[in-house]
Amino acid sequence: METLHDTSSALSLLKKVNQCQNEQQLETILHQLTQHLGFEHFFYRARFMLDRSSSLDRVLSNFPLAWLQHYENNNLSRIDPALQHAERKLTPMVWEPKIFVTEEQKRFSADAKRHGLESGVSFPVHNKDGDIGMLSLVLGADVVDASEFIQENLFYGPLIANFVHEAMSRLVNKSGRALKAPLTPRELECLKWIAGGKSTWETAQILHLSEHGVLHHVRNIMTKFDVTSRHQAVSRAVACGLV
User: Fold this and answer.
1) What range(s) does the HTH luxR-type domain occupy (predicted)?
2) Considering the domain 7-177 in this protein, what is its CATH number?
């Protein structure tokens, strides 16, 4: 099975996200990324705030059509724990029995399993404009140790979610901001290693800096790109051709 764990392969695939010219292309690339990671299904949903009183919803998915129809017909978004989590938090949420609290949510979980949607993880994404998105990745029924597999991929999920959200924002004409920012050589070095999946400590060791120094550069990068997370900074940098 081919995966994203090779850095050059990961960046090559993610760059395709920023090259998408329409939502159909974006959905196709997201499907490819999902398969490369070893997952079977994906579901991306986002709400973009156009102004204080209006918004625009977007969905990309290869979930079974029968489930999507059941979901919409019964307005299951009102009890979906993944969506509730995405509204409040940025941390990934692994689909475990404990997240389905109410009896209605337990029935929701049972219905999803009957449609082949059992072992998954959801990655929220927010930005400064108040837009909220969520990418869920779901494993096929043939994966033996689903929990371990999901844990191994927790790094790549938020990165993909931010790339997709950034691309969709551009496609719905939300991203009118210039992407390029005047980064210093040291900031570019930090950005390169962060994009390669290195932690703050690892980046500090490679560049012979203190962890505090790396964090300082990362904060500057995020400020210059006007983003709120390092995943979003990497997405912007790839779009600019900086990494």
Assistant:
1) 176-241
2) 3.30.450.80
